[in-house]
Design brief:
Two copies of one chain form a homodimer.
Chain A lengths: L3 E4 L3 E7 L2 E8 L1 H9 L5 E8 L4 H9 L7 E4 L5 E6 L6 E7 L19 E4 L4 H10 L5 E5 L2 H6 L1 H10 L2 E5 H8 L4 H10 L4 E5 L5 E4 L4 E4 L13 H15 L6 H18 L6 H4 L3 H15 L5
Parallel strand pairs in A: 1-4, 1-8, 2-6, 4-5, 8-9, 9-10, 10-11
Antiparallel strand pairs in A: 2-3, 6-7, 11-12, 12-13
Helix pairs in contact in A: 1-8, 3-5, 6-7, 8-9, 9-11
Chain lengths: 304, 304
Amino acid sequence: MNEILVVGSVALDSVKTPFGEATEALGGSATYASYSASFFAPTRVVAVIGDDFPQEHVKLLQSRNIQTDGLQVAQGRTFRWSGSYEYDLNEAHTLKTELNVFETFKPRIPASYKKSDFVFLANIDPELQLDVLRQVDKPKLVACDTMNLWINLKPDVLRKVIARADFLFINDAEARQFTNTAGLIKAGRTLQSWGPKFVVIKKGEHGSLMFGKDAFFAAPAYPLEEVFDPTGAGDTFAGGFFGCVAKSGGDTSDAALRKAVIYGTAMASFTVEKFSLERLKALTPGQIEDRVRRLKELTHFDLV
Amino acid sequence: MNEILVVGSVALDSVKTPFGEATEALGGSATYASYSASFFAPTRVVAVIGDDFPQEHVKLLQSRNIQTDGLQVAQGRTFRWSGSYEYDLNEAHTLKTELNVFETFKPRIPASYKKSDFVFLANIDPELQLDVLRQVDKPKLVACDTMNLWINLKPDVLRKVIARADFLFINDAEARQFTNTAGLIKAGRTLQSWGPKFVVIKKGEHGSLMFGKDAFFAAPAYPLEEVFDPTGAGDTFAGGFFGCVAKSGGDTSDAALRKAVIYGTAMASFTVEKFSLERLKALTPGQIEDRVRRLKELTHFDLV
């Protein structure tokens, strides 16, 4: 039983980067996270889509054996996000957010999903994340992700979600903002003190930091000469990480989680090479293994 | 013969951070770099000081067996820098730079230093760095550091220095600026194409990246909950790195240089714990070894 349930957003993203433009391409936190997780463990997804949602996108998820009965089709338009990145690609500038069917979304966890041992609350309104936790049946491990919007709008609800999660994924700027702390090490430790056993701070091109009870792990990003579009990198990372954890049956030993960070890192590095899920679509397990081995090479050193 | 010659600035720094303030404390690129290098190899320093320079600072360098006959005492006041750091400590804001005796400084390399096998051109005017290269006698390896000021004012002279260096140390913002490139991987490769065999990009709390001919190495910063004052961290890193290289007799194998990055990282982590050289003064070799081992622990992972 290592099924992973991913709840989050499915979106149509319009993204502009210095290298090009994509219009109404498949996106959303649950999309990237579930697609990434599916390389490691049986994955099921819960999200809302509008009646305009292209069927090919559902088929794409199904092509990776992701269970999609949890995709609720609502009357109206699918959630849309449009954003742009400047030259440095570090920060997404939101141009427009159309909630559409998301405005009235209430996640309904299908009966067959309720016993998922691994629950990943991808970035959505923390009220909905709490709602999911009320519906699932004692998962072995819960992970959550979030974004600055919810830190600003609903910090107290978000704190409740975090307190119930085993893993928190958060990016560096958000970690600083949420804890009102400049240093990332202190920010990570503070977030940990709010409940989650493990905190992973995602730092984009600077890699990631994982904080455990007595453990600390620092990993670089996979070195790419060209980053094409960073959209979805964090979701892909978290999905890959938590997929690895599910694959191991929930091994939270330091060694297992370090490995999960590295797989998450590799997965994210593919996402940013093209728009949307274009690169992930063509991804093979062998390519993942190559990149993971390369990460080993480029971080290894001996002291003697 | 593994003597290392350090040429750069010796300064009196007035620094304000969110955690406190230091007035006319010992600083300067050559000071931090030589002090750090002295833990690894016999070190000699060339710089200019004014007739107001406190003798205790010279004694401090001598206490680490740093040869100080290259400290040229000029009539007038010592170079002074004052700056402040905001809450995030990432960027130094220069409040005032008083060149003083630096305005007319011409480095004179003492005859007994000319045969130094390892020459570190710490951050100073690139014209002076070139001048040093004209005076030394076929060093085995040359390293240089710089800053945004020289990238702005004298990019062409700086390019000449870089072309003659085996190692270039540069921080992330400067690497992006100098190469007009957003991505650090591409920036590093571009800098390498300008001549130096090895480029090390220093990223502060995010660690460092080293680019070799076919090699690439990523190291995190040592995780500190409190960074007190980042002044001198980059110089300390570079001094420790190049000190290690000198200690090895100039071993530029990938394995040796990775180890040098890690020692540089450890050295820098001590500098930022207090103002000026306060923490370095109390540093013991055992403490360095502890931190280096800790860096091994926190970056290590196994794929099986």
